[in-house]
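Internal tracking record. Fields below are filled automatically when a chain is submitted to the structure queue. Please do not edit lines marked as system-generated. If the sequence contains nonstandard residues, flag them in the REMARKS field before resubmitting.
Queue: standard
Priority: normal
Entity type: single polypeptide chain
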Amino acid sequence: MNIVRLLFLISLPSLNASQDGRLVTLREECGPLAKSADACGQGNAKCCGRAAEIILSASDACASGPPAALSLAEKGCGQGDGKSCAVLSRFSVSASGARLERHPTRDQVDAIGLSACNAGDPDACLDHAGLLAAQALPEARNFYEKANEIYRALCSAGRTAACHLAFSYDLSKGRAVDAALDYFEGVCKSASARTLDLADACFEGERSRPPLLTQTQTSRVAKMLQIGCDLGSAASCGRLASRALEAQDLANELRWATAACEAGVPDWCAEAAGIQEKKRRPDEVGRLRKIAAKSAADREARRRESCVALDPSSRPPK
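SYSTEM-GENERATED OUTPUT FOLLOWS
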């Protein structure tokens, strides 16, 4: 996991200014792991930090993961990238195993991030806030707010990804809730919003919801989850299944658990298969178990490909 990002989600895109002044997301600029690592090798320091983050946030770590992340972070930090330095501050030895003589201190990482934040980089503001939050310092809130101000300004300038982050923050704080739900509902229902993860927008009302919502607001969130599930969002389907399970609503638990299974979550396959087994439906039990096995195999294949991207020599011989 990267530096603590309270109230924001690392899976959401962050915005930065390119050298020509065009506002782009790190996702757009750097791409997936292999492309990020390649861009890092070509001198794009921000992509070094992104690639290192991807590696360290992977749930199924590869043996070469930490050394590869460290190597990328060393390169990016050396070029002044705050995210890379933040990753590097977690290590005490270099990628080759030697102790880091110029290991950045927390103060140095902090200073780099603060400078970038003051220069208008919202991602750096979040990293700086995370450093403060990790120390339980109340000043963290000021930098979350500063990041949100930048995202809101970019949203006004037409950057949809910035709107996504700004409204997520407002919703998590319990302010302007209806406006935030209006935004996510609109994106969720809009076929023209394919530049964002449409299903993710449908789930955002649930993910960032504050503790207290009105009955109407709760109903809106539930409807968005249903749209997200219909779009194939495993998170949305799984949350609906969890709600049904909590309510002891067996019919809807089966419905949503089956949908989550078909969206690629093996655990929900097992839950749905268990219900079908009690209903004496062996054909459906068999179908669900086959889906679970395929989902698990696909996940393992993706993990192996990620490992190969880090270390081509780990590719099994044909």
